[in-house]
Design the sequence.
């Protein structure tokens, strides 16, 4: 029996794919189709697949041409697959001529002529683009966001005026005190919203906005870029899998002195305070790992401008039924920006700056058991955030990178702070 293998992404399965599969099958008796996983595609710079791995697998299966389907997840897997599955022929389209000659050592390599005039990229490009504008912000965050939209197919940045004409969606990066008004204005104008967290400064305001978005059939979602990084999502899975035993403590630190908040002569009224700037990111892993039902919370803060209730440093301590957590945030103090998840059998360590990490370690009593995890991170996660947002808008379904109840809890803690429910140092 001659076994043939071929690999591809097979996004929005088209005639070119089917012809390739038919000819690949005709080369032998048994056809194995390798389909790239979403994460592997990210590392190859393909971040804009319209369909998930499951959908792509289902489409290839439905052709009835594949005798077996494997998922391609890592660099170098082709050699492993060829050996493991006893493959005789490796084949791909002629767009790859020469690229896989190195596999000749393991099996025969055949390049099949590519079908002219059709490709997944073209089909994706024909779809109407999501036009996205911005509200507020004149600094680096907004600039970075605009730059990142260039990497995402199907999305285009458009300058928009106060009336928000000419865009389908907006990214809100104004001062947090304006978020509620800005989000409401955008929703009332029928625009989907991606808003820097916190979305509002009161839980009541947050709920009102969520209801409004729901009634209007619009997407309203938190922009916490860390939530979209692959390393961070894997870390959540590893932590929840029991590898480090029961989670006893989650401790996150986020600080930056970059915008000079603690220095004299700086107009703090234009700046975000520490809890708004960093609180959402610092609280994210706490709520995602331990849930939102804490029994107690204590906020300790160092105020640097009484009139503005502006904190230069804040520590938030949570007590859960079986665990504790702390979030340490500062714009006028500096500490190691790390994340540590303490378990009964070991711990997870994410080095600074953990919120834009591509790497973490699972550590045990015996260092020989330690394991390191590396992932690709492009554009600090913003790029993946834009992809997820565009997908949510297209499908009309919110993505679950930051759950609503977590967004609401983040708003709740910040509301507590704004109501002076803190201890001053
Ligand atoms: N293929 C083909 N003819 C086409 C398109 C693709 O023979 N018109 C082949 C590719 O050479 C590859 C397989 O189908 O062997 C899967 O290709 P894939 O990269 O998933 O599809 P593309 O349409 O090329 O996707 P993209 O535009 O994103 O590169």
Sequence:
């Amino acid at each position: 029996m001659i076994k043939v293998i071929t690999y591809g992404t097979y996004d929005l399965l088209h005639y070119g794919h089917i012809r390739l599969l038919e000819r690949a099958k005709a080369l032998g008796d048994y056809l194995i189709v390798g389909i790239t996983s979403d994460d592997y595609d990210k590392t190859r710079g393909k971040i804009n697949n319209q369909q998930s791995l499951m959908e792509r697998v289902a489409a290839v299966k439905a052709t009835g041409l594949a005798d077996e389907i494997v998922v391609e997840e890592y660099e170098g897997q082709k050699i492993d697959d060829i050996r493991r599955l006893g493959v005789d022929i490796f084949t791909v389209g002629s767009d790859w001529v020469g690229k896989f000659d190195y596999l000749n050592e393991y099996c025969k390599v055949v390049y099949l002529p590519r079908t002219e005039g059709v490709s997944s990229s073209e089909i994706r490009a024909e779809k109407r683009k999501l036009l996205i504008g911005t509200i507020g912000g004149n600094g680096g965050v907004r600039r970075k966001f605009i730059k990142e939209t260039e990497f995402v197919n199907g999305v285009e940045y458009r300058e928009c005026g106060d009336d928000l004409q000419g865009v389908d969606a907006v990214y809100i990066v104004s001062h947090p005190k304006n978020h509620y008004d800005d989000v409401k204005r955008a929703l009332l104008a029928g625009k989907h919203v991606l808003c820097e967290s916190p979305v509002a400064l009161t839980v009541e305001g947050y709920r009102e906005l969520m209801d409004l978005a729901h009634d209007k059939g619009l997407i309203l979602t938190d922009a916490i870029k860390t939530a979209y990084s692959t390393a961070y999502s894997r870390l959540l899975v590893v932590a929840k899998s029991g590898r480090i035993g029961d989670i006893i403590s989650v401790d996150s630190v986020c600080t930056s002195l970059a915008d000079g908040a603690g220095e004299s002569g700086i107009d703090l009224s234009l700046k975000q305070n520490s809890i708004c700037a960093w609180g959402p990111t610092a609280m994210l892993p706490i709520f995602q790992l331990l849930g939102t039902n804490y029994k107690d919370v204590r906020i300790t803060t160092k105020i640097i401008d009484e009139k503005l209730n502006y904190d230069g440093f804040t520590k938030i301590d949570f007590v859960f039924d079986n665990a504790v957590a702390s979030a340490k945030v500062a714009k006028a103090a500096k500490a190691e920006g790390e994340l540590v998840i303490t378990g009964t059998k070991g711990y997870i360590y994410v080095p600074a700056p953990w919120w834009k990490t591509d790497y973490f370690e699972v550590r045990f009593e015996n260092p020989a058991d330690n394991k390191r995890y590396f992932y690709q991170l492009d554009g600090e996660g913003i790029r993946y955030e834009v992809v997820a947002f565009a997908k949510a808008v297209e499908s009309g379904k919110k993505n679950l990178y930051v759950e609503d109840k977590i967004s609401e809890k983040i708003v709740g803690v910040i509301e507590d702070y704004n109501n002076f429910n803190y201890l001053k140092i």
Remarks:
- The first helix runs from residue 15 to 26.
- The domain at 123-223 is CATH 3.40.50.720 (Rossmann fold).
